[in-house]
Amino acid sequence: MRYYVIAGEASGDLHGANLIKGLLQCDSSARIRFWGGDGMAAAGGEMVRHYRDSAVMGIVEVIGKLGKIADNLSFCRKDIMEFRPDAVILIDYPGFNLKIARFAHGQGFKVFYYIPPKVWARGESRIKSLRKYTDRVFIIFPFEIEYFRRKGLEVTYHGNPLADTVEARIGKNWDGKRFIASHGLDDRPAIALLAGSRKMEIDYLLPRMLQAIEILEKRTPGKFQYLLAAAPSIEREYYCKYISGTPVRIIENDTYSVLKYSEAAIISSGTASLEAAIIGTPQVVCYGFNYITYLIAKAIVRLDTVSLANMILGKHIFRELIQGDCTAANITDEIIRLTEDAGYIANMKKDYSMMRSMLGERGAAGRIAADIVGEIKGKGNESI
Predict the structure, then answer these.
(1) Residue 86, pLDDT above cutoff 90
(2) Once rounded to an integer, what is the mean pLDDT over residues 256-264?
């Protein structure tokens, strides 16, 4: 059978890669065409567009890209019609994917939404589109089950596949000595820097992270190593223009090892924060962007937290420094606490353990793939 999969950013590529592996296991004759990234390409299938050519973050930023977005939508619709898939599978990326859902449904294709829009934060009107234009919605956060049911939308929850990904890459056989040797590290504690997967995030957060490092180096000279986990969508030279002349070391294609090795992490809000929680790395989350975008978002978003791990557990496991609070001084203070306050660290790791237990059994992506294949063949399982 034929599958057309669309993911528009790094986190979607990660989940898409797991899903593609599951589809290929369930359907040996599967032909997969996708929008995504390097992870999905490695899993199998034919890439249409890389997410780095289409990812946009922020309301104001989107306005400047409307022409390109319209061109991508037009191309995608044409490509779907030419490919004639048995299923269109949409992963997150709601501004683009909901439009494709409407189109594909109207053309008679089966439409599956994997990781639907975060309508519990904003945009509840999108629930109507999910109900109208999709055949099945798969969620990966346990708190969404009851929320969507209250809104009249039945969803399927098979667990969160991120735990599988983390375990596969840095499970019991992770070789810390090899990681240290391969990157020329020493025995000082390390601080991880994860500044986001989009350039606009990096432009906002990385300078603040570097300012915090300057303060730390004045307070405790040479105490820490600083490891910047590079996003796969960002070229090395883009980071270098910021970190040249600093003690920060860039590490590419090994984010999980950076988190595993580090004593604490400064992280852009998003999937990386949840990954750090699964791994067990004490963290502070930083978040901010264009001030006009921030004011608009503040007026419409209904959440008191921006981090998935905090949402899953329903409490603030770690601190979030948002917009005006995202200062070098605040980041510095939190890193010192994350490396010196034993009670604070112990409580955070205890909460991490509770959160991980809520993510469900291993093998979620495979079960989702099996459901999709079964649905196409007319024998899909019931939602839970």
Answers:
(1) yes
(2) 97
Give the tens place of pLDDT for each residue, 285-321.
998 866 666 555 555 455 567 788 998 998 999 999 9
* Segment 124-133 mean pLDDT: 92
3-state per-residue secondary structure call for the chain:
CEEEEEECCHHHHHHHHHHHHHHHHHCCCCEEEEEECHHHHHHCCEEEEEHHHCCCCCHHHHHCCHHHHHHHHHHHHHHHHHHCCCEEEEECCHHHHHHHHHHHHHCCCEEEEECCCCCCCCCCCHHHHHHHHCCEEEECCCCHHHHHHHCCCCCEECCCCHHHHHHHHHCCCCCHHHHHHHCCCCCCCEEEEECCCCHHHHHHHHHHHHHHHHHHHHHCCCCCEEEEECCCCCCHHHHHHHHCCCCEEEECCCHHHHHHHCCEEEEECCHHHHHHHHHCCCEEEEECCCHHHHHHHHHHCCCCCCCHHHHHHCCCCCCEEEHHHCCHHHHHHHHHHHHHCHHHHHHHHHHHHHHHHCCCCCCHHHHHHHHHHHHHCCCCCCCC
Give pTM, 2 decimals: 0.82
Neighbours of 230 (CB within 10 A): 22
- Mention every residue, 6+ apart, whose C-beta is less than 8 A from residue 372: 3, 23, 87, 89, 112, 136
Contact 29, 1 (CB under 8 A): yes
Q: Which amino acid type is present at position 154?
A: E
- Residues 22-53 have pLDDT tens digits of 999 999 999 999 999 999 999 999 999 999 87
**Greatest C-alpha distance within the chain:** 65
Integer Rg of the chain from CA:
21
Stretch 106-126: mean pLDDT: 88
Measured between alpha carbons, how far is residue 160 from residues 140, 219, 308 in Å? 5, 40, 12
Cβ proximity of 78 and 102 under 8 Å: no
pLDDT of 62 above 90? no
